[in-house]
Amino acid sequence: MAFKGPQAARSGPELPRIGRHSIHTCQVCPDCSACPVPAAKPVKKSAPEVPAKASGKAPAKAARKAAGKAAAAAPRLGKDDWLEAAFQSVVEGGFDKARVLLLAERLQVTRGSFYWHFSDHAELIEELLARWLQGEQAAQQRLQAIESADPRADLAQVLEAALAHAGPDLENMRFELALRGVGRRDPKVARMLAEVDEQRMALFEGKFRRLTRSRKKAAELAALFYLAIVGSYQALSRPGADEVLKARLVALIAGYLVDAQQDL
Residue 29's pLDDT is what? Predict the structure, then answer.
């Protein structure tokens, strides 16, 4: 007969028991209250790291910052930059090419930059014409200052300077031709051009008067002189025109209109 009692409860193989130890080996009590083995501290399981969600805000912010630095490093366009771009556009294709959108594309900027300097397209054109007129008046003053004891030499210098005023690539001449096209339909521009023509004629007439001593003769020669210069502009603007053609035109104008008057 098997013995029944406390000893029987402790007989037999010890079973694994989940408690404060991974394997319970206590022989004192089943609840480990008097276990001589110190309890192991429970290991806290750390929560798995959750990767941060990708956000478009950081890349967008970096892009804006980089764009801001690039804009700060880029040279800021001024009013003169827009006016020069408009001038070159007119030279290349007339006033129709001086529209705001086309100028912005030429300068590789947005139209917003334009409105920092001009209220609208009309103001741009008005200032462009004022800029051209100021340049013409400065040229007139330089020609007027040419004066020596020899009136023929003065007229030869005036002729050279007038042809040179067309510009290295005849850009001034091409701009003026485009402007005269506008003057045919714009009374305000027409009046401005008429004033410029009168000033030029007055300058040439004064130079010829010193040579001929005749008001009537000087007026006639001045008109022919001016027409010859304008015609030379047209001839020099053709493909293949070179310095040889220019020298020939200068010789013809000076020979018939200036040198021929030396004995009068």
Answer: 46
**Residues of the domain holding 169:** 133-261
Question: How many domains does the chain divide into?
Answer: 1
**Is 71 inside any structural domain?**
no
> Residue 137's domain is classified under what CATH number?
1.10.357
Q: Does residue 31 fall inside a structural domain?
A: no
The answer to whether 8 touches 2, Cβ cutoff 8 Å, is: yes
Cβ contacts of 18 within 8 Å, gap of 6 or more: 24
Residue 60 pLDDT: 53
Token representation of residue 78: 């001024």
Considering only CA atoms, which of 239, 257, 263, 235 is closest in space to residue 247?
235
Q: CA–CA distance from 100 to each of 105, 114, 118, 172 (Å)?
A: 9, 7, 10, 21
C-alpha neighbours within 13 Å on the C-beta side of residue 17: 13
pLDDT at 62: 58
Residue 253: how many other CB atoms lie within 10 Å? 23
Q: DSSP string of 177-215?
A: HHHHHHHTT-HHHHHHHHHHHHHHHHHHHHHHHHHH--H
Q: In this structure, is residue 176 part of a structural domain?
A: yes
The pLDDT value recorded for residue 76 is: 82
Low-confidence ranges of the chain (pLDDT < 50): 1-37, 46-47, 49-55, 63, 66-74
Does residue 184 lie in a domain region? yes
